Every structure is written in structure tokens, then in C-alpha cells.
Amino acid sequence: MEVWRVNVRSQSLSREELFQSWERLGGRGLLARIMVDEVIPTCNPLGPNNKLIFSPGLIVGHMLSSCDRISVGGKSPLTGGIKESNAGGRTGLHLTHLGIKALILEDEPENEGWRVLRLEGDSAHFESANDFDGLGVYAAAEMLLKRYGKKVAIALIGPGGVMGLASAGIQNIDKDRVPSRINARGGLGAVMGSKRIRAIIIDKSGGSKPDIVDHEAFKRAQAEFNQALMAQPQTTVYHDYGTAGMTLMCNGFGALPTRNFSSGEFEGAEKLSGEYMREILLNRAGESRTSHACMAGCTIQCSNIFGGEDGKRIVSPLEYETIGLMGANLGIESLDTIARMNWEVNDLGLDSIEVGAALGIAADAGLWSFGDGNKALALIDEIRIGTPLGRVLGNGAAVTGKVLGVSRVPVVKGQAMSAYDPRAIKGTGVTYATSPQGADHTAGLTIRAKVDHLNPKGQADLSRSAQINMAGYDTLGACSFAGFGFGAAPGTIRDLLNARYGWKVNGDVLQDLGRETLSLERLFNRKAGFTRADDRIPEWMTRESIAPHDAVFDVSDSDLDAVFDWD
Amino acid sequence: MEVWRVNVRSQSLSREELFQSWERLGGRGLLARIMVDEVIPTCNPLGPNNKLIFSPGLIVGHMLSSCDRISVGGKSPLTGGIKESNAGGRTGLHLTHLGIKALILEDEPENEGWRVLRLEGDSAHFESANDFDGLGVYAAAEMLLKRYGKKVAIALIGPGGVMGLASAGIQNIDKDRVPSRINARGGLGAVMGSKRIRAIIIDKSGGSKPDIVDHEAFKRAQAEFNQALMAQPQTTVYHDYGTAGMTLMCNGFGALPTRNFSSGEFEGAEKLSGEYMREILLNRAGESRTSHACMAGCTIQCSNIFGGEDGKRIVSPLEYETIGLMGANLGIESLDTIARMNWEVNDLGLDSIEVGAALGIAADAGLWSFGDGNKALALIDEIRIGTPLGRVLGNGAAVTGKVLGVSRVPVVKGQAMSAYDPRAIKGTGVTYATSPQGADHTAGLTIRAKVDHLNPKGQADLSRSAQINMAGYDTLGACSFAGFGFGAAPGTIRDLLNARYGWKVNGDVLQDLGRETLSLERLFNRKAGFTRADDRIPEWMTRESIAPHDAVFDVSDSDLDAVFDWD
Predict the structure, then answer these.
(1) Which residue from A202, A199, A201, A170 is spatially nearest to A184, judged by alpha carbons?
(2) Which of B47, B163, B407 is the closest to A540 by Cβ?
(3) Best interface-test mutation with B: which of A9, A108, A391, A403 has the largest number of B CBs within 10 A?
(4) Which of A237, B301, B310, B349 has the fewest CB atoms within 10 Å distance of its CB?
């Protein structure tokens, strides 16, 4: 495996052997290592000194169920700190088949044009993308597929990334060539935009699967992992209901963000539930699907295709975080409306969590009324047009709160919280507060732990363990839902890595990778100017309680500061 | 002297004796002490845990020339750090005559109405200010003077503070009852707005001058200071040309911010000069005045009244920083236009530096064309109306750059630079970078030092000395121009303090006060999350050079980190 370093100014590729310290890592861990080794922590995230890095995880390339994820990273224009955002789709798999362990985009171009970066065989090509001007993600992906054929993988940005908005992500086509697997969080689409790369085409036709040192051992571990994964009840739940299975659970805990995080309980939760969505989708004819895989080989298939009453696809997938942030959080109880909003932000190439949070703040500021889906769609259209208000919203919740003069802003390190209110699921609140990534449920969700989520005691320990696990999985390239399988058969991680690489790691490898990754990320952030003062839930959430449990965030600062007790 | 603590929720006053550690300080130094002792550094600047503090300097109350300044402070909504902003006018003098060494506004009100806080004798009164809705600063001040009489001092906010904009200041009436002496920087007007206090009336009729322990010694020192001040050539220059005398000097150094800091040289500089302005004002009949005092007793009288061709006052005063940021920085070369823009931002109660910088960024973003004064006025009007774009601009340069996607943003710690480009006056650049206040020339201007301002060597030493001096003067309540007199007769500071308070301080007192103040400010900022990474000039200024000297900012990080070598 190699590092491919692409300079966007000189439009040149340099292929490099891996340093030893980079070889042991992949995905999120390798990103953190490269960022610490190479990127000036105080640089302008949208300037020439930032780098945009694509790194498949350590076990990517073999179509292990839910384990072909692509990590993308750089310095975040949203948080000002390190950022890793991972996604499914084809990008991770295809990069590994070209032998690329890390693709690093460097510098900034001198002229204003837009380019497609095409990787194939052993070379990189810059091709004009100026004819994509004004196209949304869906139309652009279609054009790219026409031009480059259906066999390639594509990672692209939309108008949001082109505009440099801090909520812009990078979209990857899935196994059905739909560009909906998004490296959503932290504004990495704007970083890609600052490099003036509209899309990356990965043509693996000249490549091959990564080597496996011990095929038999790999197969055995894979079978054991698959069996364990299939035996987990969550696999069935996610298959049937998708992530929307979370809605009622979260509402039951009083943690469903409602009307800009002013309540943890939404009267329309039932209509936003996975159960209700399944009923709708099964009843609707046409393209609707209740389960659907984002990556080849995935047995969970938590994704879905949300079709309208006319049978035509509105969006795919419709996920819980979007339902939470653009549904309950905006007082909207129509899944059809949420699906339409979701399509719009996807087409713009934006993070639906960040935009949903920004719209909630805008409603609190009186710019529109909670529940008015048409007005919400009109505001998303302002982003597309690029009006000042649109640019405010597209730059995320923190900027929106600042501009509109709203204090109730649910962010940590400038990044919007996901659909778990930290006052009612306090372990996840600890994760929001302390994760080097900013508020992010994927950095360590604790909702499934059998604890009293309202009790502040013990939540730091719970979050620590979840954060280490997730940093480990993100380094492997494993979806967090693969974790249900790995959790039941933990030895398989060790076995897969040893078989794949000929290593002799022991059963602690997930923990070791997780801790190393988090330490590297924290090191980068420290150099970028982050301190304990940044590891806090917004002050107002320690004061303003939410229904139904009258809960505030009351995990102590000393508990928060003890999360990274090894670092 | 006492501390008056006003709780805006309970609308109650508590009068307290001074702690010993507070007694020795005043103005900026006392603010820093109170902030460190009482304010949670991570609090929301616009929430109940921030405090708004008014503190006259140590030698305020005696009408010493240029030494009756009022320091106002709190946690800044613009920088997120400690903020002190001082101004002339009557507020400082009147507070001392009521025996108030610090007025502290605490908490936040429960209901939405606006109040006037009236201080008189030994009591504080809350009176309705709801009839001020929609009024600008000038009309509001007129109404207040009608209601409370001409003998009071007034500190008030305008629509900007009411809207909670981070560029909002607090205005104080001057000796002619014009509300133009502004605690401009860092958004303290928004902090006052968050307390829902529209104006503070200080009625000193029941009060008296502060005690002086040794009248004879005080008089002697005062006479010596006055003599020294009058003998300084700068006193004459500032009397005749005002601060606008800086324009040609700065342009000559290649440091006049031009078209959003893209050049250090403005082809229209001549027309923005103090010399040209003097000629205009002498020629124009009517209200124009080339010199004018902001505080009773000031012998320098650097202020002016800028009248139009019809003889009517456009604005008073028109200062160099406004001319720089709203003139050259916007490509505008008409003093009449700049004066009109200045009146508008004054009437809104905003910092003309911050708004000027924001407008420069908006021009870079293509929202308007440099030089188009009518469009600039129209954009200021957007702030008044409160459109999203207006709120973006009114929240200052950093937010404007973020929202509009412009990288060329001249800020440090979120605060816009004043009218000295740090690439050409590098010592002032060191001050911008390292001052706990964010970019601010009043924290330590170095332009008058006889050094090569383009040479990065030695600038940290120069800035250190200037920053210590300025923190000292701000603690005394002395205008920086009083410093010309104190510089020539340094023993008078010691003599004035010892005579006034019966102390036995020595000749190092200015240095000691300055260092102590800076150390306290840095301590607060550290707890608020600031690190060395915040003590930097924006990265682009280290890369992008300006005409005519092709200068970049190249003072080393190690030099920057060595500024506070005692701390």
C-alpha cells in the first residue's frame, strides 16, 4: 500500500512508500497521524496549508460486512480542530484496490477553475469540471457516471462545498451509484472546495484486492464475525427499521431534540418513528425499500429508500439523525416533508444535522415558525441561491446563533449536536463535550448502555469506553453497527488484522488503536489552541432544563477532564 | 470609594466597601481584577454570568488634562476573552463624584422590557426605557437630556446594542452633551443590551470630588504635568489636525489599510489627511471646529466638529481610525462621505473600526464595489433594519469573513485590526497578535518609535514596552495622549498617586500597574481557553505581501511568545 500525494497547484502526483509509523494505522487513526506529522495546526482550514486526506480503514477492501468505510479528514473549517468523517459507499473499497492507503490533497490552485481528479492504475489526472457549474450533487453524479462509466467510485462535493460553506460534506456513490453516503460533518466539503476539486473518480479497473497474508485464517475470522453479527438482535432491528428505530427510544428517554433543543419530548414522535416509516414504505408501491445496503457485502442493510405516495423515490436513505434534527427539532412531523428537505441538503452536499440545527436556531430567532415545512424548504433554497441568510445557515449552527443573536445554540467546538439531547443521555453529552471532533454521536454514543442516563455519575467512564471503541472502529473502517458483531466476537478483530497483515497483535488491539487515535487528535487540537475550556457542554444547557425529566447537564467539569485519563 | 453592585434581575443595588486588592487599582486594572475574581471565564458573554463593569481610572475625578477616562469591561462577545474599552466624556468624572470606584451590572432580567438605570446620591433606580424603541443614539440622548437635565452624565447603547451585535459599543456624552465618546471595541454594547439597560444616568449633584490627601503636592504635580504636556510638539499637532494627522504618516510608512488590507498605500490619502481636513473645516462656515475637547479640562483638544458645506455638523469627531477603516480600507476618498458613514454607525452605537473592516470584507466578497460610498451607506442601513446581511456585518469582521467565505480577514482573537497594517508597522502587529484584548492599536501603538518598522527584529521588545505603558495609562484613566506629558515628566504619575491617595509608590508605578493588569487579563483569557495559538497574526498576512514595501508579517512565533516575559 502507498500514499498518493496530489498537489493541486502543480497538478502532480507523488506516490510514496509508507512510513512505519503510518503503516500500522488506517482510517481515522492514520488521518490523525498524518495531521500531526504534516499539517500546521493553526493554519486556515480553507487555505493552502490545510490538507484533505482520504484514508480507508485497516480492514477495508475485502467486503467484510459493513467494514469498507472511507475516512476523510483535515482541519475543520467548522470546529477549527482536527476532523475525521467517515462514510459508506464505494470510495474506501476502490481506493484500497488501487493500493492507496492514504490520498492526500495538498496546497491550493492558482486559478479559479474547477477540476475532476481521476485516479486510475498508477496515475492521477486533472480534468475540467467547469461544466458542472450550478449542478447539484445528484445531477453532477449522473453526469460523472455518464462520462466515466458505472464501474468507478466517485466522491464529490455539491454547491455547498463550492460555496465554501462550513456545513458542506463530501458525497460518495453507494453500490447503486446514488451519491448519498456523505462524509457529512465538520465542513470537509468546503476543504475539498478550497482545493477546487469538484469530484474524485477512482477507477480500480487496473487494481486488485489488497493482499491477505493468511487467507484461511482471514476466512475463519470473517465467518465468525458474520455469524456473531447476524445473531445480534440489533442487526434485525436495523434491518427492519433502519436508524429511525431510534426515534421512539430517544423520545422515551426524553432526549429527542425538539424545537431547537427546548424539549426532549416531541408530541409527533410516533409519526417520526421507524415503525411508522416501515408501515408507510411497505404500503407504498414503487421504489420504496425498508432495507438497503450502502456497501456491497453489508448484511445489516440499515439504509432505506423513501418513496413518495406516487411510488417515486424522494430520498435514500432517510436516517434518524435527519429525522431528529429536521423533524422534531423543527417541530415538523411529516416524514415526507423531512425526506424532501433531506433530498435538498443532500443535493447541496450539506450535513443535515448542521443545517437542521441552524434552522432550529433561525426559528428561535423568529425567522420562521416551527412546523412550517414549506418555509423550511424555502430557507434551504436560500442556501442554494447563496443569499446572505442562506450563507449564514449553510455555515452552521454556531454562526447562525451568533449572527441572529440566539443564545440557545446546541454546539460543542462549533459543531452541532446530533439527535440525542445531552441533558437526558448524559454519557453522550460527555462525548459531545470532550470528543476532539466536536459534538458528534458517532464519536461515542452511550444510549444503549443499561444505566440511568439521567444520573451524572459514571457517565465519563461510559463515554471514555465508547469513545475509545469508536475511534478504534473508525480506524478499522468498520461501521459502528459492525461493532455489534465485533462486540460479541471480539477476538475476530485481532484475527482479521493478523491474518490480513501478518501482524501479531493481541486482543487489546481495538482499545490500543482507539486510544492512540484519540491521543493524536488531542495533540493536534492542543497545538491548534484547544484547552479544557473547549471540552464543555454549552453553559445554557447546565441551566435550562428540558421536559419531561426537568434535566440539565450536570456532569462535573472534573469528570469531563478525567475522560482521557491516559493522555 | 465604593463598589456599586447592581443586579438587573432583582433591580437592586448593593453598596460595598472595597477589598484591599481592589483599592490599589482602577480603570482597566481594576476591571481585570474583578473579572478574574468574579466572572466564570467560560460563560456566555451575553448570558447572566457575565458582568458589565464601569471603572474610572485611578486619577479620574480631578479634571487633570485628558485623565478622566472611563473604562468599561466584561467578557467580550466578539473575542470571547476579557475586554476593556475606555472612552472620554463625562461618565468617569461623574462616577467618581458619586464615590463609585466600580459599577458592576450583574445577572439578566426576567422580562423583555428595557430600562434606564439612574444613579444618584446613594441610590440606584430602574426606570422604563421602552419609549426609546427604535431610536438611534443621538435621538435617545436628546430625550434623556430632556428628561434628566443637562447636568447628568449619560452612558447609553444604540440599536446595535439592543440587537446584541458584537460590534456594539457604549456611548458617553461629552462636555457638550454629544453622545460620541464611545467604549467602542469588543461588543460591550451588546453586553449592556443583554442586561436590558438602555442607558445609565449618573447624577452627581449629591456628590463631590474625590478626596485628595495632600492638596499641595497634587497641585504641584498637576502643574508639572500640564507644563510637560503643553511643551510636547504632539500636543500642538493633535490640537491642530486631530488624530487624522496620522493619515499621511501611516500612508508614508506603507501601512494605511487600503481596500480590505490589500495594500498599504492609498492613492487618495492626501484627501483623507488631517492637513486637508483642517483646510476644509477652516474654510467651511458654521459649526465646524478643528479642535474640540471631549472632556472638561483637556488641553490637547484632539477632537473636532466636522461640518458639511452647508455649515451644519455632519459628525463630531471624525477620527483617524474611522478615516482609515471606512475611508482607505473601503477605497472611499471623500471625507464628507466618511463623516456621514461615521454618523450612521455612531447613531447605531457601533464600532466604526469593526464595521469598516466588515464592509471591506463584504467588498472583497463582491457584495459591493470599493469606493461606492452610497452603497456603503446602504449596507450600514441594512444593519439598522436588521436584515440577515445587516446582522452579519454588525457582528464584525470575523463573522462576516466566515459567512461570506472570504479568507482575507484582518482580525486577531476575532477583533478587527485598526488602521495600521501589521505588515508595515510590525511592532503594532506584535501588539495586535499578543494583546489580551485582540487586535487593537490602543493596546500598544509603536508607530512613533524611531525604528525601522519593517524589520521584524526588536519589535517584540517595542510592543512589550508599549503594551505595559498603555495598560498602565488605562489603569490611571489617562488618555494615551496624556502619555506625551507623562513621558516627559514621569515622576508626576508617582506624585499624583501619592498625593491623591496618601500612598508611597515609587517611580516604577506605571510599569507595575501595567504588568499587573496584563498578567490578570492573560490569566482570565487562559481560563477562558486562550493559548499561544491565539497570539498570532492571521496566517494570510504572513504570506500575502502589501505594496509599496512588499511586506509580510514575519515576526517569529518565538518573539511573539516572549512578549510577556515576566508572566
Answers:
(1) A170
(2) B47
(3) A403
(4) B310
Nearest CB to A392; choose among B165, B392, B543: B392
Q: Is A528 in contact with B529 (Cβ distance < 8 A)? A: no
Is the distance from CB of B229 to CB of B493 less than 8 angstroms?
Answer: no
Contact A529 B527 (CB under 8 A): no
Ordered per-residue pLDDT tens for chain A, 567 residues = 999 999 999 999 999 999 888 999 999 999 999 999 999 999 999 999 999 999 999 999 999 999 999 999 999 999 999 999 999 999 999 999 999 999 999 999 998 899 999 999 999 999 999 899 999 999 999 999 999 999 999 999 999 999 999 999 999 999 999 999 999 999 999 999 999 999 999 999 989 999 999 999 999 999 999 999 999 988 888 999 899 999 999 999 999 999 999 999 999 999 999 999 999 999 998 999 999 888 888 888 999 999 999 999 999 999 999 999 999 999 999 999 999 999 999 999 999 999 999 999 999 999 999 999 999 999 999 999 999 999 999 999 999 999 999 999 999 999 999 999 999 999 999 999 999 999 999 999 999 999 999 999 999 999 999 999 999 999 999 998 999 999 999 999 999 999 999 999 999 999 999 999 999 999 999 999 999 999 999 999 999 999 999 999 999 999 999 999 999
Using CA coordinates, name the residue in chain A closest to B409: A44
Is the CB of residue B177 less than 8 Å from the CB of residue B150?
Answer: yes
pTM of the predicted model, to two decimals?
0.96
| Cβ B419 vs Cβ B394: under 8 Å | no
Q: What's the start-to-end Cα distance of chain A, in Å?
A: 30
Cα–Cα distance, A424 to A251 (Å, whole number)? 10
Q: Which residues of B touch A49 (CB under 8 A)?
A: 539
User: B520 to chain A, minimum CA–CA distance in Å?
Assistant: 18
Query: Is some CB atom of chain A closer than 8 A to the CB atom of B163?
Result: yes
Residue among B403, B529, B532 minimizing CB distance to A534 = B529
For A275, residues 6+ apart whose C-beta sits below 8 A from its C-beta are A241, A245, A248
User: C-alpha grid cell for residue A145?
Assistant: 457516471
Q: Which residues of chain A are within 8 Å of residue B395 when distances are taken between CB atoms?
A: 402-403
The beta-carbon neighbor of B539 closest among A42, A166, A533 is: A42
Is the CB of residue B47 less than 8 Å away from at least one CB of chain A? yes
Residue in A163, A165, A403 nearest the CB of B399: A403
| d(C-alpha A483, C-alpha A34), whole Å | 25
Give the Cα separation of A32 and A44 in Å (integer): 17
Torsion of CA A476, A482, A487, A489, to 10 degrees: -90
Q: Does A391 touch chain B (CB under 8 A)?
A: yes
- Residue contact A533–B527, C-beta within 8 A: yes
